[in-house]
Amino acid sequence: MKAAQKMSQQTDMPIVLVTGAARGIGLATAKRLAADGFHVVMTDADRQTLEASATALSQAGSPSVEAHQLDIRDERACEALLGRFTHIDALINNAGVFEVKKTAELTTDDFRRMFDINVIGMFVLARGAAARMTSSGRIVNIASRAYLGAVDYAHYVSSKAAVVGLTRALALELAPRGILVNAVAPGVIDTPILAAWSDEARAKLATAQPVGRLGRPEDIAAMVSFLASAKTEFITGQTILVDGGRSLGGLAT
Ligand SMILES: NC(=O)c1ccc[n+]([C@@H]2O[C@H](COP(=O)([O-])OP(=O)(O)OC[C@H]3O[C@@H](n4cnc5c(N)ncnc54)[C@H](O)[C@@H]3O)[C@@H](O)[C@H]2O)c1
Questions:
Q1: pLDDT tens, 149-197?
Q2: DSSP 3-state assignment of 109?
Q3: Where are the domains of the chain?
């Protein structure tokens, strides 16, 4: 890990910073971006899992990764990490938390915690990364299909709707500098975030998707990598639903 940390700034490859990269969608995204030619700065609050994942990626042939423990609620730590780089090509704001709680039981502290991680952490990193981006900068925020509305997690739904708003606002503000800002809104993706669901509930969830399966982290990683790349020059402020058709409202027969 120490050797990897020394890599900051010493590469000609485009540099992408990924939050929540220890597992799930963030890890799949880090892997995909490394395969697509980025030097990947993997970050996560969970140091142990992050280090294990970064080591596994390196050993599996993704040499251009480095890992840094980062809790995105810690504004000074976010700024200190960004300060290691004179430029950043792309930011993937992926770290987020999910919780099921009926409104009657939701506290204002629950609501604030959700926003601290899912929205304010994203904003802090986007502000700092944008300051280090040139005209080809890219920011991709991970929202959720839930921003359209969902039952029993009003705080999560609200936070993801805020991610969509933040994406649109930043896209307009940063467009004159050539920086593109988009969001990806995953449907139900099979990651540890679904740990609260029983196998039975997960199987039921799968049948509720028009394509007949849960999403895979790689489904999201592919879209994120496209939006982070120089292949796209005319898409900004958009929220791309990657949800197996769930948002269409009807089920395939
Ligand atoms: N899995 C899904 O079904 C699904 C659906 C829609 C949206 N999403 C979104 O995708 C993103 C990734 O979800 P996932 O399913 O991979 O979740 P996950 O729980 O498997 O991984 C999230 C990662 O974020 C990290 N993290 C949590 N709080 C953090 C903090 N304060 N600072 C830094 N890192 C922190 C965790 O340690 C973890 O490694 C989240 O923003 C989530 O809301 C997931």
A1: 999 999 999 999 999 999 999 999 999 999 999 999 999 999 998 887 8
A2: helix
A3: 2-243
147 catalytic residue (yes or no): no
Helix pair 154-174, 121-130: axis angle to 10 deg: 10
Q: What is the pLDDT of residues 78-137, one digit of tens each?
A: 999 999 999 999 999 999 999 999 999 999 999 999 999 999 999 999 999 999 999 999
Cα 138 to Cα 89: distance, rounded to the nearest angstrom: 6
Mutate to test the pocket of ligand 1, among 42, 159, 193 (most ligand atoms within 8 A of CB): 193
Ligand 1 site-directed mutation target among 68, 73, 97, most atoms within 8 Å of CB = 97
The pTM score is 0.96
User: 2-243: what CATH class?
Assistant: alpha beta
* DSSP letter (8 states) at residue 95: -
